[in-house]
Protein 1
Amino acid sequence: MKCPACGHPEMVAKNKDETLSFGSQSLTLHTMHGEFCPVCDEGIWDAESYRRYTEAQAALLRAVKGDISAEIRRIRKSLKLTQTELAEAFGVGKVAFSRYERGETRPPAPLVKLLKLVERHPDLLAEMRGVSTQGEHPRGITSRSTRTAK
């Protein structure tokens, strides 16, 4: 196999330790196997080592950034709400929180911040349920689309 980085005509099979770093944390994967260039040390992992690498990378990201999916689920359960009830209170689709909790969709940052506020101040939930999201604005201001032309 030809080196994809420098074009050297041969790659050499060997085992290596690989250290992943993100933020202030790092972890080392031992005995990773692949084909490596003897000139530039560029390498290609075999299928098993690549799987280990991607799983470790995802785990490291979750550890540093926090697992927002688990956080959303924990907050929702602490509020004793179903996913549908929480979606209605936040004015999003019925399955939105299901997708957020499974990690299929990343929730918008403002939604996460508001959810954390509601966790600390559950009385806000009742207020949120009373606020319409359908074109109504406070103090009688109407949206542009509902104004009458003169």
Protein 2
Amino acid sequence: MMLYGPLVVWLGLSFFGPYDVTQGIYSKLLYIHVPTVWVAYLGYTLTFVYSVLYFFTKKHKFDSLAVSNAKSGVVFTVITLLAGSYWGKQTWGTWWVWGDARLNLTAILLLVYLGYIASRQFNKDLGKTARNSSFIGIFGVIQILTYNFYFVFILSQIAIPALFI
């Protein structure tokens, strides 16, 4: 029930919210693109939390929760990449800019968690599979931390001096 309020606000903004004069109606894709990446980050963070809990307790419910959150993260990352690519095509005139680290790191993040899901199929022993997957779930979140550190701290150090000139 608590989910309906934010969902209604999001839908209202997506359909009736303002759009950028320069980008036109395609700027509304950002109402989809940005929230889906944050939901994907939430899924990957919960995958990390449940993988750590599984690693220390060996309770299979934590492994199941980690897998389901990883799958949710993958779905939302795909939506993020599709919405962002379509927005980029309409705004920049190209589907993908290889020089943009955000695009490439998000695609690599998707591949890491697709590997996490695929690693579940390599071994029929559930305990061994869960243990091996928990390593990927624990270390996969490092990319999110690295990504945010890079853009928040490194790039802001470059941009801040330009503000005072």
Protein 3
Amino acid sequence: MITGDLMAVLAEILKDIFFKICSDNVLREMFVKVCNVETLNYLLFGVLTTIVSYVSYFIAQKLLSKKLKRERSIMIANVISWILAVAFAYVTNKLFVFQSVSWDLNVIAKEIPAFVGARLFSFGFEMVWMWLTAVKLKQNDKVCKLLGQVAITIMNYFFSKLFIFR
């Protein structure tokens, strides 16, 4: 698998580097708990999900802006990018991050609603964020989208780890 052994090696390298620059045992213990294969996989696939979201947003917004006002094209493009990113994230989180390999109907009947529900919460955050920063404050929508994705990636990790793929 692309992420198994490679991420384990990367986690060890990062741990070694951190231990050389940090002598505080409490910080070292926290780092060991946080810097593991699962977290690194989540970061990798979180970045890829962000790319899916960002690229699909950019394309949709570019196409929609030809027919709609800026405010509408931003918000509709954001919905389109969310749908594509959630579909991508579910599959990659299930298979590569949290190793939930069962496609049994009972399993996915629990996972998908929980996953989409958590993503709807972060989607609400993103819609408010985009409306406030890009529409109302008239900031660069591409920068706003990227900054929102950072916060959402962190939020979604905790939802997935604690509630969905236990």
